Amino acid sequence: MAILPAVLVAELFVSLQGEGVLAxxxxxxxxxxxxxxxxxxxxxxxxxxxxxxxxxxxxxxxAAAHRAGxxxxxxxxxxxxxxxxxxxxxxxxxxxxHHLTVETAGTVAPEFTCDLLSISPKTSNSxxxxxxxxxxxxxxxxxxxxxxxxxxxxxxxxxxxxRAADDLPEIEALVAELGAARNRVLLMPExxxxxxxxxxxPAVAALCLGHGFRYSPRLHLDLFGGxxxx
Length: 230
What we know:
This protein is an alpha/beta fold. The protein has a 9-stranded mixed β-sheet with strand order 3-1-2-4-5-6-7-8-9. It is globular. Helix content is 32%, strand content 21%. It is built from 7 helices and 9 strands; from the N terminus they run βββαβαββααβαβαβα. The chain has a domain of 153 residues: Aldolase class I (TIM Barrel).
């Protein structure tokens, strides 16, 4: 059966951006389904480990963004850069006057447009046990793709999930290799709930203070808890 030229979407919703430099901003979220990674701490398994969703045309998604009534649009996943229509979708949303954030792990680098590129490179703390371990480890970082994305998008943030202080050497090494500005690097505590995040938050805040990185909250967990539509 032929695949329609459309975006595979797990969910559409309006919420507050929970993470990064725009935390707290009312935004319309387009969460795509499908991912080339299988992070051990993934909090959206319905877009990766057990992907679900339906195909929606670019026109449908632009109409939904217009109806949402907010300027900021976030395309997230899963891995939205795997979607064949990502270039057409971002161009159309930009043409409607939306401020556009695209969230990605940075393992592929197709052409698209955005106002803020939010890259969340995966460190070894993301590698799962079991049959996906080797595939995830091979795919979780691609320096060529990361460098291409940063060349193409001047407004960016690098957002790292931190489980413990021993994650820091990997982060420091990658930031140095990419030549990224330290004030564009954000560390956020790993956790699927506000309680889990709270247990790690003081240690992550201390790492930010000690190394000149920014701290990212997980605001959506504090306000709404985990699950869909937040």
